[in-house]
Amino acid sequence: MPTNHADANGPRQGTASGPLLGDPPPTPQRTSTAHGTPRPTAPAVPLSDHSDGTRFFNPHAPEGKSLQDIRRWRRTRQKSPWPERIKDPILPSPTRTAPDRIAVTFIGHSTFLVQIGGICVLTDPIWSLRCSPVRFAGPRRVRPPGQNLDALPYVDLLLVTHNHYDHMDLPTLRQVRKRWAPPVATGLRNARHLAKAGIRSAVELDWWQSTDLAGARITYVPAQHFSSRSLRDRNQCLWGGFVIEAGGAVVYFAGDSGYCPHFAEIGHRFPRIDLALLPIGAYEPRWFMRQQHVNPEEAVHAHLDLRPRRSLGMHFGTFQLTDEAIDAPVRALREARSRAGLSEADFDVLAFGETREYPAA
Questions:
Q1: 78 contact partners, CB below 8 Å, separation of at least 6
Q2: C-alpha 345: how far from its chain's center?
Q3: Largest CA distance in the chain
Q4: Count of beta carbons in the 10 Å neighbourhood of residue 89
Q5: Rounded distance between C-alpha atoms, residue 32 and residue 275, angstroms
Q6: How many C-beta atoms surround the C-beta of residue 307 within 10 A?
Q7: Which of 5-14, 155-164, 170-179, 315-324 has the weakest average pLDDT?
Q8: Are residues 320 and 83 in contact, defined by beta-carbon separation less than 8 angstroms?
Q9: Quick one: fold of 86-359?
Q10: Domain limits of the chain?
Q11: Is 313 within 8 Å of 349 (Cβ atoms)?
Q12: Using one digit for the tens of pLDDT, what is the confidence trace for 115-172?
């Protein structure tokens, strides 16, 4: 049963299926189709500092972006050219590591295999050619996954931060379910999408809510982002990141986020983070992307807010989602790291397919 990691005077959290502890499940509201047939809408969620009971919002950026903003970006954007394809060196496949070590394998974009406390955790897996609702259009990967799915050791736990197509890829999720059928944790209202991949028992969590799965303590933590899988479901599902605690070690996986006070709050509530996995790409132009995606300089600020022992960058060099050059995030991270007086040991990036081990204590 999920429990609340928030302060005692904070908002009450939902159970795995959404309603408040001890409250009856909400009755779904109904709308009419074009033929007048009623159909259920998304069930209500608890009122909180990030939910109005129907949709979610960002406490530090509640206005979001308008349709006019999207049109302006599409009209004025200046995309840097990306290569059509990059072939990276083939690196050794990951193997099980000792329980007193942390090992992390970078597959690409936001997909990692994280080994912590002797278990293997897969984050936001996408092995598909495109991150899109259709196979014939949408952002196409320029480099293959750093490791084949069948090269991974047994996956004990699956984490899905939110419902965007580059983080919730149903074809990949079907493969993961068929191969390992691991338990799954995600944010409120995301389970209905995962069910389309045959995942029927995902644990839904609100911000600061925790659950125990596969020998790990999983806490869903805030992020400043948004959700949608169509034109009509914007912000009906929650977004966030995860803190994984197992074997005395702690790993933070941020998912997608703009820079905001959430990072400092996570660092306060989890004063010992051994490894933070932070996004560094998909950030230009800043006037449009600032609320949803940190840039490398802001990722360094997030690292300083969190105070982890070390951080690794992600969400770059795989799909061209925004306007910066393919190598811009890594170059900008080096520059921002240097200005902050940090070293590669403090905040680095892995090669695609690389596995790196760290002590857990």
A1: 323
A2: 23
A3: 63
A4: 9
A5: 48
A6: 15
A7: 5-14
A8: no
A9: Metallo-beta-lactamase; Chain A (3.60.15)
A10: 86-359
A11: yes
A12: 999 999 999 999 999 999 999 999 999 999 999 999 999 999 999 999 999 999 999 9
